[in-house]
Amino acid sequence: MHNTILKEISKMIIPFIQIFGFYVIFHGHLSPGGGFAGGTILGTSFILYKIVHGKEKTKEKLSYKKLMTCMCTALIIYGFLKGYSFITGGSHLHLPQIPLGKPGNILSGGYLLPLNIAVGIIVAVTVYFFFSLFYEGEI
Question: What pTM was computed for the model?
Fold first, then answer.
């Protein structure tokens, strides 16, 4: 089956979907959205890539090892930051290393931004893995 039009259109649209996903992740503490919503957007861009370009080409770009490394790193960072928050009594917004900044700026939420990024990575990979399991029976 020739799907040249789909491949060319996806080359143009997938980067915009991913930019929007990153935008939602990075501005989640300022507006509706955050790690979960942005992660689902990123995950759907991975799914679209797999549907259009096929299993073999997707394995080159989104290999299991790369995705698991990203997800495990994000889980460790998330666990470390939330563990620190738990040890300090839940005051995770006031880290001395990361100033709170001016309200409305991207760096105004302490380490909510790193938490949103970690959650976004975890959700994006998980959504893609669930799709792969249901679509093909393997990751």
Answer: 0.83
pLDDT digits over 41-97, tens only? 999 999 999 999 888 999 999 999 999 999 999 999 999 988 887 787 766 555 555
State the number of CA atoms in the 13 A half-sphere of 108 facing the CB. Answer: 10
Say if CB 81 and CB 115 are below 8 A apart. yes
3-state helix, strand, coil in the chain (%, to 5): 70, 0, 30
Backbone phi and psi for residue 110, each to the nearest 5 degrees, phi listed first: 65, -130
**Contact criterion met (CB below 8 Å) for 113 and 29:** yes
Q: What span, in angstroms and rounded, lies between the C-alpha atoms of 108 and 111?
A: 9
Q: Which pairs with CB-CB distance under 8 Å and at least 24 residues apart come from 101-108?
A: 104/30, 106/26, 106/27, 106/30, 108/29, 108/30
